[in-house]
Amino acid sequence: MTAIHHRVSGDLLVEVPGDTLAGRRLAGAKCAYANLVNAELSGADLRGVDLCLADLSGANLDGALLTGADLSGAVLTGASLHRADLVDAKLLAVIFGRASLRRADLTRAALRLSSAAGVDFSDAILTRADLSHADLHGANLTGTDLSEASLSFSNLTDAVLRHASLVCSVLIRTDFTGADLSHADFMLAALNQAVLTRSNLAGATFRQAVLGGCRGLETARGLTEIGVLELESLDVGTLQASLDALPPRMLERFHLPPERVASLRAALTLAGA
Predict the structure, then answer these.
(1) What is the mean pLDDT of the chain?
(2) Residue 21: which of 6, 36, 9 has the closest Cα?
(3) Are 27 and 51 contacting, i.e. CB atoms less than 8 angstroms apart?
(4) Do the beta carbons of residue 204 and residue 224 sit within 8 Å?
(5) What ranges in the chain are assigned the alpha helix state H?
(6) Taking Cα atoms as reference points, which of 244, 194, 106, 213 lies closest to residue 204?
(7) 205-207 and 210-212 as β-strands: parallel, antiparallel, unpaired?
(8) What pLDDT does 273 receive?
(9) Contact between 33 and 47 (Cβ < 8 Å)
(10) For residue range 168-181, what is the model confidence (pLDDT) as tens digits?
(11) Distances (CA, A) of 98 to 75, 135, 138, 201, 206
(12) DSSP secondary structure string for all residues of 105-139
């Protein structure tokens, strides 16, 4: 028998036949506060399991079924969740601590307030996921599908989002300082007061995107190499802050020929007088 104990009291929570939890069916089990450090849970059926505040540090959850599971407040430091199914899972305030979620399916998952600095989300599916107020500093989101996801108020400084899809994503006050956004797709995305300081925008797509009150655009790299720049909206504040620093080729892609730029500069100078 394999026993799962409470991480604090040591009380028995669940007992499963056999000497491993790999591939076992634990759907719906009550495992809050469970001690599952370095547990072998690959391929396990954990659908709807209560793993709130559980310690899963170093656990192997590759290919595990965690659909609808609640891992709020859990510790996943160093855990492996390659190709894990986390559709509709609750991961509120989870400490990921450089866990690996490569190719995991987190469709509609709630990751609000999670600590995921340096985590590997490469090629993961995060469609309609809620990552608001999350710490994703230095995270690897290469090729990740973030369509319709919310990353509002999140920290993505120095994160890597090469070839990521952010179609229809909500990016209110998202901090992309130093982030690699090359070849990312921002079609129909809403970037309101987002920080783009020193980010890499080479090859990125901004088809019908909205840029409002964005900061640091003038310091971004790859501005003249942006793939598609057909903005739905660009507010005066963003333009005013970056007008003098943006290269002429970039201004032309905003449909601002030299004569119109001169007129705008004159108007903004008059308005500020």
Answers:
(1) 90
(2) 36
(3) no
(4) no
(5) 236-242, 248-253, 258-272
(6) 194
(7) unpaired
(8) 47
(9) no
(10) 999 999 999 999 99
(11) 11, 12, 10, 25, 30
(12) B-TT-B-TT-B-TT-B-TT-B-TT-B-TT-B-TT-
